[in-house]
Amino acid sequence: MIRNSLLLLLTFFYTFILDAQQAEFYGPFSNWTNLKKNYNARGDGRSDDTKAIQLALDELGENGHSPVLFIPNGTYRITAALMMKSKKGIAIYGEDPLRTIIKWDGAANEKMFYLNGVSYSEYGRITWDGNKKALAAYAHEWDGKVKYANSGSQHLDEVFKDVSVGIKSGINMDAEMSIRRCRFYNCNSTAISLQGSNALDWWIWDCYFENCNVGVANNFPAFGAGNFQVYRCVFNRSVYSDISLGNSNFFSFRDNISFNSNSFLKASQFSNTSPLTIQNNTIINDSDKVMMDLFTKGNLLVIGNRFITPDGAKNFVVRNVNNFKGSTPDITLINNTFSANDKLIEYGGGRVTETGTLAGQIKMFRPDIKPAPFAMAVSYSITEIQDTVSAITLQNIINKASSLKKKTILHFQAGNYQLTNSITVPGASPLILTGDGLRSVIGWKRQFDTTATALLQVNAPAQCLFRNMWIQGNGKTDGILVKDDDKTGNLIYGNQLMVFNGINTNLSVKSFSNTAIRFENFQHNYCWKGTSVNIEGSGGANNSLIKIFGGESAGNDNSYSVTKGARLLIYDSWYEGAGKQFISLKGNGEFYLNGAKIAVAGQSPEPFIKIDSFSGKAVIAQAIYNCPKKKIYYNNNLTNASFLTIGTLSWTDSTNSFYDMQDKQNKFSMHNNRFNTGKGSYPLPNIGNNDPAFVSSMLTPVINTSVVVEKAGNKKSSMLVFDHVMIDGSKNNLKIEKQ
Fold first, then answer.
1. CA distances in angstroms from 317 to 2, 44, 236, listed in the order given
2. Of all residues in the chain, what percent are helix, strand and coil, respectively (each to 5)?
3. Kindly report the CA angle at 166 between 101 and 127, in degrees rounded to 5?
């Protein structure tokens, strides 16, 4: 059993490293603004480049100016804060993450770069050197007055060093932020700091933190708020804690590595509890420290973690004790491994469900402690495309590039591409279709009705990449139709894919048994009439497990459906809206939701979760419910359903009348759920089948599913990627079907 655990850990870490090596950087392109050439910035480390950079930022994306700013290698000395406001869909890239440096030489405790109302944008490949004086490198702080809340942006391949705070939010709307492959050194307050209750859905992937006071927090440097998820990161010697929580929400920390930090997780005492998922982390400390000090946070789902700490220590490895008020949150522990023999977990009186704990495993593997590689700058053949191109000419360009059977970049310069014919990307075409931020808009011309199925169609094996573009079906067609041959080794992947205003669906997936389909930081909003995410299986026994890791949704009539044996697993997604419900499950399939906030404000008396005439499994774990006067309804009238809700926190009802369970077979479990009064939370009674074996069996796909990377099987397999792409206003925004 120990040997199997070690093999699993080795596999997880090896795959994690391989993934970061796959990332590529495309650019600079001929139409991008060059800071040195166009604005005479010096970048010599001596000259003051503040005015040159500020002018470039002022003109970025304005009429006659590219929405992309390229900064060549050099050290750019700045003496005053840079500012940018009311911009959408812009991008700023350095030439090399380690050799493009912006260095602070102004007054102490000032911000280097203040962004007010800058949304759906991208920043990457720059070192921000605070010179041990700057307060913050990036301050995403919308003031609530100018256009555009700070939303839908991402940071890639950046370095933050010798600054108090690397990236911070303000107190207003600074949400849906993706941070990938960034490195933080010597941040003496907090590397990533959330400071507002609407600083929501920050997804932090593959980052490296070394010698920072705190890695990620919503209570440093001042008491703040907001929620975040941390995946596949490495924390090296954090002074106070890798992760620190103050204000409450739901949080998940998965597949991280902590090495000799003072603590992996500290949760301050606060009246409201927070559902937490702590999964597949490797936590190493060679001294006598409490690695997770949880106080009032919870309920807790702790799965598959590895704690490598001294034996015979004075302190407990995990401390789950409430020193504030109310009752101690409940904790569910599954398959955790400790090198120590004793003083593993200190319980404070809450309910405990524990299975599969291994102690005394002194030979656990220690992974390498190093950053994930940055995206590599690559050089492929480039075809420049402008928005004057016709659909016929564009199709000819794609066909010609496809016939070469080698990686080719089709660069869609910023503009409004209005097409009157459907465009097809042939199978086995290793094409890179990339735009200039979200200023490259490809849409169906509104005046033209059509019988075409989709604006863009990708045929099997799908081997292309879409990046930094906005696709608009304009109500006439589907946005992108993917035809896949469903072979073992196929992979369809999306990062920061945003699908909005779909008429029938935002995402439709049909009939897959072998293709791996996975989305990270997935946003799907405003499907008012249909089902936002509709997953239909093959009808047989074997169906692909469709995965969504990190996301948000809003304003959907029905957010998810699974039919014909479909299987859908979602980690860490926020929903809010005025619709009548969150989800209605009918037919047959499997639905797993682990980590969520569900806020349905509509006045309809419909249950916000309705499971009726359904066969299969449904699990909701570690979720917050904020749905006034609404219920969860479960009716096992077909006798083939099973339902688990575990570790949830309700803000609407203090009794189990919140749950309407109709199941004579007793194939359901309301396990370790709580009610929040605003002055603490209290346990709801467990009802149904609360046998640990039943609970664990229902959670099996969650237990077995890590956020480590999946890779395409071979050169002939599909490898289709969507990276920072918006698809909007189509009949079905993204439809994926078996060919």
1. 20, 49, 18
2. 10, 45, 45
3. 15
- Look up residue 210 and give its two tokens: 């070394």
Amino acid identity of 92?
Answer: I
396 contacts: CB under 8 Å, gap ≥ 6: none
Tokens of 499: 């699908």
- The amino acid sitting at 482 is V
Nearest to 228 by CA among 288, 276, 298, 188: 276
Q: What DSSP designation does 709 have?
A: P
Residue 210 CA to residue 370 CA, distance in Å, equals 10
Q: Are 572 and 202 in contact (CB under 8 A)?
A: no
Provide the percentage of residues in the chain whose pLDDT is more than 70. 95
Residue 171's SS3 state is coil
Region of residue 149 (phi > 0: left; psi between -120 and 50: alpha; otherwise: beta):
beta
Of 308-322, 405-419, 709-723, the one with minimum mean pLDDT is: 308-322
DSSP for 200-250, please give it.
--EEEES-EEES-SEEEESSSSS-----EEEES-EEE--SSEEEEE-S---
Q: Which residues pair with 254 in a beta bridge?
A: 231, 279
Q: Can you read off the two tokens belonging to residue 329?
A: 């949150």
Q: What is the pLDDT of residues 565-609, one digit of tens each?
A: 999 999 999 999 987 889 999 999 999 999 999 999 877 788 999
48 closest CA partner among 96, 98, 105: 105
Sheet with 558-563: list strands edge to edge: 423-425, 454-458, 478-484, 732-738, 505-510, 531-536, 558-563
Q: How many CA within 13 A on the CB side of residue 298?
A: 35
Give the list of residues 6+ apart from residue 179 with CB closer than 8 angstroms, or none.
154, 155, 167, 192, 202, 203, 204, 205, 207
- The residue assigned the tokens 């009716």 is 635
Contacts of 112 (CB under 8 A, 6+ apart): 78, 81, 82, 102, 104, 128, 130, 134, 136, 137, 138, 163
DSSP 131: T
Which SS3 state, helix, strand or coil, does residue 121 take? Answer: coil
- Whether residue 562 is predicted with pLDDT greater than 80 in this model: the reply is yes
Region class of 181: left (phi > 0), else alpha (psi between -120 and 50), else beta? left
Of 716, 571, 644, 632, which Cα lies nearest the Cα of 230? Answer: 571
Q: What are phi and psi of 624, to 5 degrees?
A: -105, 130
Task: Reply yes or no: is the peptide bond before residue 28 cis, omega within 30 of 0.
Answer: yes
Q: Is 143 exposed, middle or buried (0-12, 13-18, 19+ CB in 10 A)?
A: exposed
- Cα–Cα nearest to 289, from 266, 256, 322: 266
Predicted TM-score (pTM) of the model is 0.95
Domains and CATH numbers, the chain: 2-21+33-269+277-355 (2.160.20.10), 380-738 (2.160.20)
115: closest CA among 133, 141, 135, 94? 141
Helix (H, G, I), strand (E, B) or coil at 328: coil
Q: What is the H or E stretch that residue 698 is in?
A: helix 692-698
**Rounded Cα distance, 706 and 722, in Å:** 21
Per-residue pLDDT tens over the stretch 363-416: 888 888 999 999 999 999 999 999 999 999 999 999 999 999 999 999 999 999
Widest pairwise Cα distance in the chain: 77
Comparing C-alpha atoms, which of 351, 353, 302 is closest to residue 330?
A: 351
Residue 476 exposure: Cα atoms within 13 Å on the Cβ side = 21
Q: How far apart are CA 233 and CA 13, in angstroms?
A: 11
SS (H, E, C) 407-425: CEEEEECCEEEEECCCEEE
